[in-house]
Design a protein that fits this description.
By secondary structure, the chain is an alpha/beta fold. The protein has twelve helices and eight strands. Strands 1-2-4-3-5-6-7-8 form an eight-stranded mixed β-sheet, with helices on both faces.
Length: 306
């Protein structure tokens, strides 16, 4: 089901259509059975992709700011034998859920996730978030701690502010004239080669190794209007995550100060295991999916036995 879109998220009508074509093509390219599910929430219809045995331990996958359910295709393919995986299109993002963008400074995103889990009939869940998905996991754990069995946070937003110079993007994105100029320039001049060169600074891997990832970032840069991510959660919200928690930060993390993230998390989160993952950056699931999948499988298997 493709829900109604909010044109303000996209600079051109054809952009939304092209991004959804990429979405469907990438799902099919996994070559596995999956369920495409839409559930109602108080904020609008919400779409997700589910794989794995329905009686297996449930794991919810929360993508980063520029992602969708398809961002988790390596995890969907590799972990589906062990878990019931629910890869969500977070509301207001570039997936198939309603395009309503909720406030960051209240519990609306947590309430949205609460509604999704209720719609799925899932009472307690293992959460996995990357980047801004980690912020959502933290907000949800503070809102409904009884529903969180464990949590894996990767390249986590929500613990420390975004470092310089990436924080300057807020100024550009909050200025209407700058947004309009970006839309016009990207629509007229942006090429895939330009995007490939740009993302070489984000990935540790060779970006040519995953042309689907490059295509997605090209479509995002050309058509999608980014929203600057939220800042850190409070000390009390961090402390509310009392379930077993795994924090993975890449050795080459670009957007957050790794040592400071781990130090603050250890100070407030009572059941935390924190690791610096070698040879990966912010998008660790693409840099080294086999390593990340093995670490997630071990963590959630151990959590299920705790």
């Amino acid at each position: 089901m493709m829900v109604a879109k909010n044109q303000s998220l996209y600079s051109a009508e054809r952009g939304y259509a092209e991004m959804m074509r990429w979405y469907e093509k990438s799902l099919e390219s996994m070559g596995i059975d999956y369920d495409s599910i839409t559930v109602p929430t108080r904020f609008g219809a919400s779409h997700l992709v589910a794989v794995g045995p329905k009686d297996a331990p449930p794991v919810v996958l929360l993508h980063g700011m520029e992602g969708s359910a398809v961002s988790w295709r390596s995890q969907l393919m590799d972990l589906r034998q062990s878990f019931r995986l629910y890869a969500l299109d977070i509301i207001g993002s570039a997936g198939k859920s309603a395009t309503t963008q909720l406030a960051y400074d209240n519990d609306d995103y947590a309430k949205w996730l609460d509604d999704v889990l209720t719609g799925l009939g899932v009472e307690r869940v293992n959460l996995t978030g990357i980047s801004n998905g980690s912020w959502l996991a933290l907000k949800f754990a503070a809102y409904a701690p009884q529903r969180v069995a464990s949590a894996a946070l990767m390249s986590a937003n929500g613990i420390m502010p975004i470092r310089f110079p990436y924080n300057l993007a807020r100024l550009m994105m909050e200025t209407a004239a700058v947004r309009a100029a970006k839309d016009a320039l990207a629509g007229a001049f942006l090429t895939r080669a330009m995007v490939r060169r740009a993302v070489s600074g984000i990935y540790v891997m060779d970006p040519n190794a995953d042309p689907e990832e490059i295509e997605w970032f090209y479509l995002l840069a050309k058509y999608y209007r980014f929203r600057f991510p939220p800042g850190p959660v409070s000390d009390a919200e961090l402390a509310a995550l009392t379930a077993p928690t795994l924090l993975l930060m890449g050795e080459h993390e670009q957007f957050f100060p790794v040592d400071a993230v781990i130090e603050r998390a250890r100070r407030h989160m009572p059941r935390l295991v924190a690791e610096v993952v070698p040879d990966v950056g912010h998008n660790m699931c693409v840099d080294n999916p086999s390593l990340i999948n093995a670490r997630l499988r071990a963590f959630f298997s151990d959590a299920a036995l705790a």
